[in-house]
Amino acid sequence: MNIPISDAKAQLTELVRRAEAGEDIVLTRHGHPVTRLVPVRRIPGTAEKRALFASIMQSGRAKAADEDAARSQDFLYDDQGLPG
Q: What is d(CA 20, CA 24) in angstroms, rounded to the nearest whole number?
């Protein structure tokens, strides 16, 4: 939705609500796009970042412990380690 800045002043609350809901709100001046209203992305806190990192590390450890994954492409190489 394109809306002139002069009209947006009277509708700011409604425009912000619509932008938060995901609608594309572009403010214009003399018919030219000037700015866009977008919702602010929430930045995860330290505890959330640490939990995510721990989850990634655990997933990596589980994959590294899987012997089948380490040997899954051995059939591609001969006894000298060259492509077969």
A: 9
pLDDT value of position 72: 65
**DSSP3 helix / strand / coil % (the chain, rounded to 5):** 50, 20, 30
The structure's pTM equals 0.51
Rounded CA gap, 25 and 4, in Å?
A: 11
DSSP state, 83? Answer: B
Reading the block at residue 21, the tokens are: 């809901």
pLDDT tens string 43-82: 899 999 999 999 999 988 877 766 665 566 777 777 787 8
Residue 54 burial by CB count (10 A; 0-12/13-18/19+): exposed, middle or buried? exposed
Return the biggest CA–CA distance within the chain: 77
CA distance 80 to 67: 21
Query: Hunting for tokens 């059939």 — which residue is that?
Result: 75
